[in-house]
Design a protein that fits this description.
about 210 residues, alpha/beta, Rossmann fold, 5-stranded parallel beta sheet, 10 helices, about 55% helix
Amino acid sequence: MKKEGCMLVGLCGRSGAGKGYVSGIFGELGIPSVDTDKVYRDMTSPSDTLSVCMKALVERFGPEVASPDHSLNRAVMRSLVFSGDKQALADLNRITHALILEETNRIAAELYGNGAKIVLIDAPLLFESGFNEMCESVVCVTAPEETLIRRIIRRDGLSEEDAKKRLAVQKTVAELEDRSDFVISNDAEYETMVLRVKDCAEKLRLIREERYL
């Protein structure tokens, strides 16, 4: 639950846009973030027994999505949800979003307790998950399509075809920009990116001050 006087801001963008990079710069400027991808990874990491999340995924997709160490077999899951089966992707999101949201709220509460006045939710599926409904503003990170593909290939070791398949099931940049309050283009050197993020951070702080001070 959001603390009085504090502001929750959504951070969205397509795969490869560099949301983590941009949220890191926000952090350097005093605005921390909750990485929902990391929350998900932690919920599906190796453990002595299947986590609540893993039990639900195994029930829906079968035992092959669980590795021997009870973690998520990401290669198997990717092949299932990025194969064009929209129902599989919808079910994955349905199962995981509620659990991710609960943990995200807990982490955000800790950040508020440590003095943060603005907290970002770095969520690739901000709108699909409904997380945007908790946010007072939304920032979209963008980059050219060819840049997204190149970054996905380098980061995840996918083929160009698989990288394009991943982007094909996501919202377009036009859709994301249309539903966002701010857009940051991640297509420049670090010094320029700092200036862009700083400008956005100052505007977010002004919004918070106008609403709560």
